[in-house]
Amino acid sequence: MELFGQSLETIYLYGFIISGILTLFYILFGDIVEGIFEALSEGPINPTLILSFLTFFSSMAFLLERFSSLHSLIVLIASLITAFFLVTLLNIFVLVPLSRAEATLAYSDEDLKGRIGTVIISIPEDGFGEVMIQGKGGNIARSAVSFEDVAIPYGEQVLIVDIKESVLHVSPHEKLD
Question: What percent of the chain is predicted at pLDDT more than 90?
Answer without folding.
Answer: 40
